[in-house]
Amino acid sequence: MTEPLSPSAEPLGERRIVDAALAVARRDGLDQVTMRGLARHFGVTTMAIHYHVPTREALLSLVVERVLGQVEAPPDGPWEDRLRAVHRRLSAAVSDCPGVADYLVDITRTRHGTRLADLATGILLDAGFDERTTVLAQATTQAYWVGYLKLAAGFQRRGGPPARHQTADDPQIYPALDRVALARSALDAETYLEFALDVIIAGFRGRRSAPGR
Known about the structure:
The protein is mainly alpha-helical. It has helices at residues 14-28, 35-42, 46-52, 56-68, 79-94, 111-126, 131-158, 175-179, 181-185, 189-205.
């Protein structure tokens, strides 16, 4: 990661800086991306990085924008299938870049984040929700995106869900958690995703104001 820039290499610019920052974010997490570290990587001064990307916050936003830009709109079909497809595509794009989920709390901070919010909102409107219910349903969907993606990132760090409550000296202190420990150990992040999608969509169905398209 410390190979200096050679004279024949492509000139340093925003695209190369974001490429390098994204590689760091995928390997170590978004919070480990620093202007100083990128300067070492390219063999330049920190000021040279700032010349192309003015602040670290701007750089992180560009990385998030690159990740979210990978999420394509789903094909036409039932609204349930389209909403599932957005969830799955977002999960695939974000799951290998820890820290991006934090930006989904305020999803309109980037252009592609706004595009995804608009996409989910449009799917819900097509499903027949009135405007007020659409706003609430989209916020619920967004909150789930954040929670699920953080859960998935935790699974990656740990290699899976914990088999039991790790702080208990005696498992019987938490008998309910101990009772489900075996079942929990058999679950992966994808299973949590699919279960939650079933629950969310089932709950949404009962609040439509018109037949879905």
